Amino acid sequence: MIKNQVELRKLHDERQTDLLNAVFETQESERKRLAEDLHDSVGQVLSAIKLNLHRLDKTAGGQGTLPLLADTRKLTDECIQEIRNIIHNVLPPVLTDYGLKEALEGLCIKIEQNTNVKVDLKKKLDDERLQPEIELAFYRIAQELFSNAIKHSEATIIHLTITKDAGWLVMEFKDNGRGFNTDEVKHGFGLKNMESRVQLINGEINVYTKPKNGTITIVRVMI
Length: 223
Prior knowledge:
alpha+beta; Heat Shock Protein 90; 2 domains; 5-stranded mixed sheet; 61% helix; elongated
């Protein structure tokens, strides 16, 4: 009976892992499709609009239309840039092409450029690529942690450290925000999503925080 129970538990865990893996694969597939659709359809339409506005700007006879054309061109440029940002967030090509180290560098630069948060990034990684599922999991977790810190913690400084040592890949994310009670937000703040991603790569995640004392999140996986 005990043996049967152990086998049933193992089968249940395997099915849970397969289900989680299928969910995340579907999410990434949808992200890729969305990025391609934005680039191929909306992006091209906006580029065509920008070109037409440029032509109108040259042929416009009335001086009264020039400010309107200039303003419309500016809005179009902003919209194109915003779509590029969305595509980069949804499907960062630098992660696929160059790996986790460069992708995290780009993410930190973007956070500093678009927010009032100062990011201190420390890297102790070689240039050897990691398994794709590990790189993707760590990048998505970093995105989630940055989002939480910016939206909820009121952090002004974030320290991100990524190291590879003694067969382990370790990422530490530390902010100086207001912290939180883990019991109260256990099912929020993307914690469940991060825990599921870590589970799929056989890693571990630990969150250390309390109100008014910031948050430290450590993610580890054997590589």
